[in-house]
Specification:
The protein is α+β, with helices and mostly antiparallel strands and about 260 residues long. It contains 7 helices and 11 strands. The chain has a 4-stranded antiparallel beta sheet, covered by helices on one side. Strands 6-7-5-8 form a 4-stranded antiparallel beta sheet, with helices on one face. It is elongated and about 90 Å long.
């Protein structure tokens, strides 16, 4: 029989690990000397130790290893682990691609994140503007009209409000937009105010600080990022206004989030 130190050397498991696995019921000493308290192992247990070590190297948890040793189909455990590792790999790939873009961007002006926007109800209105800047006057008017129509309607917390551009090309005048704001329930509609449910959406997100005059740079950056990293754009981009004319005196302090729905 082998003392714990000898078994440790042969199994390439530390004494600390062996004591832990004993506590968890994975490798129980074949016997314990009643006088000295020495833990003694049989040589056949080296095979069990090697199996546990290999499972741990595959990042299986103690509970997963226990399940296999108790007779659970190992392939089912490995399939589940493969799915988890693939999801982890995708998250790592996203972080790596973001870091690479930051490294390539000399000014580090924009940083991309991936978000999950939960399913939500929105009220929306499609409006044609004479010029882009008219949006800042039109949006409050849309909100006021909706609240007059639905005085008890509550917006979600945190708030979620965005605009989409419905024209197929850039236009300086006669711009068609759709304004959306997330609310807690469906409400009364009229010719201008409508309600719908938008599904959970995965988006690329960047923040643009400053005037809207050069927001095109942000759109160019996020579109290139999506293309370079193999993302498929699934819907119109969403423009969310965090800070603007309503709460900031200087255009340099305006903050806009651009969200690009992807899969």
């Amino acid at each position: 029989m082998l003392k714990i130190g000898e078994f440790s050397k042969l199994s390439h498991l530390t004494v600390k690990a062996l004591r832990f696995y004993e506590k968890e019921g994975l490798i129980i000493p074949a016997s314990v000397d009643k006088f000295t308290g020495y833990r003694l192992y049989e040589t056949y247990q080296l095979k069990d130790a090697a199996k546990i070590k290999s499972y741990r190297q595959l990042d299986l948890s103690i509970d997963e290893i226990k399940a296999i040793l108790l007779g659970k189909d190992a392939k089912k455990v490995f399939r589940k682990k493969a799915i988890a590792l693939q999801e982890e790999k995708e998250k790592i790939d996203v972080r790596l691609s973001i870091i690479n873009h930051i490294l390539e961007d000399e000014e580090m002006k924009y940083q991309v994140t991936v978000k999950e926007i939960p399913e939500t109800i929105v009220y929306y209105s499609e409006v044609r503007l004479q010029k882009y800047s008219d949006m800042m006057q039109v949006i409050p008017a849309i909100g006021q009209e909706c609240m007059e129509l639905n005085p008890n309607l509550k917006c979600t917390e945190p708030p979620y409000e965005f605009c989409e551009y419905l024209d197929k090309e850039h236009k300086d005048t006669d711009v068609l937009i759709r304004h959306n704001e997330a609310v807690c329930e469906f409400g009364k509609e009229n010719a201008n105010i409508k309600f719908k449910k938008i599904p959970r959406t995965k988006v690329l997100s960047i923040f643009h600080k400053g005037s809207y005059d050069n927001i095109g740079e942000a759109y160019a950056f996020i579109m290139k990022y999506a293309e370079d990293n193999g993302y498929k754009v699934t819907e119109l981009s969403r423009e969310c206004y965090i800070d603007g004319i309503w709460n900031k005196d200087s255009q340099e302090e305006w903050l806009t989030e651009i969200q690009l729905p992807i899969e």
